[in-house]
Amino acid sequence: MAERGIAACIPSKTNRKAHIPHDTALYRQRHRIENMFGKLKDWRRIHTRYDRCAHTFMSAICIAATVIFWLPQ
């Protein structure tokens, strides 16, 4: 990864002897995105991909994202 210029954004384990430096701001953003995908996959229609057309599937994702954003959990 270092040869390609890719920086690690996942922190190393606490018991690791040589800690790998990471970007904490990038890790927070990555965590938010992973949580968003997790919430989207709670919707059965999306995680099983009932809609085979790309535009219909994207519409379902937009509706689910809007409902997730506006309804408190």
DSSP E strands, number: 0
Instruction: Please count the helical segments.
Output: 3
- Provide the succession of SSEs: HHH
Low-confidence stretches: none
Bulk shape: elongated
Taking Cα atoms only, what radius of gyration do you get, to the nearest Å? 17 Å
Strand portion: under 5%
How far apart the termini lie comes to: 38 Å
Query: Strand count, sense and closure of the main sheet?
Result: none
What would you call the structural class? Answer: mainly alpha
**Overall pLDDT confidence:** 85
Helix content: 40-55%
Question: What kind of oligomer do you see?
Answer: single chain
Description:
- It is a single chain.
- By secondary structure, the chain is mainly alpha-helical.
- Helices cover 52% and strands 0% of the residues.
- The chain is elongated and about 45 Å long.
- The model has no long low-confidence stretch (mean pLDDT 85).
